Amino acid sequence: MDDEDVAKVKKLIKEYQDANTQFGQLKIMRDQKVKDGYGKYSAKAKKYTQYASKIADSAIPMVKASLSCSKAPTVSDYDSDFYSKYDTYISTCQSDLDALSNAPDKAISDYASSLGDYISKPSDLIGKMKAIGDPSKIEYGSDAYNQYRDLQDQFYDLPSIYDTVDTFQQDMKDEEDNANPSDELKDLSDIVQDGFDEAVK
Predict the structure, then answer these.
(1) What is the pLDDT of residues 121-133, one digit of tens each?
(2) What pTM was computed for the model?
C-alpha cells in the first residue's frame, strides 16, 4: 500500500459519488416512491463514502504499524542480542503506533490503542529483566535468579498479538456492514423495477 494506491481508492470513491449524484438528477426522481427510495439509499451511500475515505486515509500508517508490530524477534533471552533486537522492535512498533493513533477511523484508532497496550507489556518486562542483568551471570537459586525466572515466565506467557488482530478484523467488519448501502440499493432497484413493470402493463 502506497500513496498511488490511496489515490486510486480516492478516485473510485469520487466516481461512486458522481454516479449517485447523476442518478439523483434523472427524470425518474419525479416518481415519489423512487425519490423516497433514492433518499434512503443516498444517505447510506454518503455514510459509506465517508467510511471508505477514512479507511483510505488510514491505510498506509495502518499497514506499516501492523507489519512492524507483528514482527517480534525470534530470539531467546539468553542470546547476546536479545535486548538490542527487542529494543529495536518495540521502538519501531511504538513509533508506528504513534503515527496511527490519530487515524480518522474509530476501529483503526482503537486498534492502535490496543496494540499500544500489547507492546507496553513486553516492554515493561524486558526493562525489568535488563535491570537484573545478564542471565548467564546470575547465580542459580539466588533472589535475582528467581526474580528473573518469574519475569521470564511472564514474558513467554504473554498473549499473542493475533488476538488483538482478530478483534480489529471483527471491528472492521462491523463498521463495513454498518456502512454498506447494498440493502438500500436493492430496495431502490426493486422500486424502479416495480415502476417499470407497472408502466409496461
Answers:
(1) 888 998 999 899 8
(2) 0.76
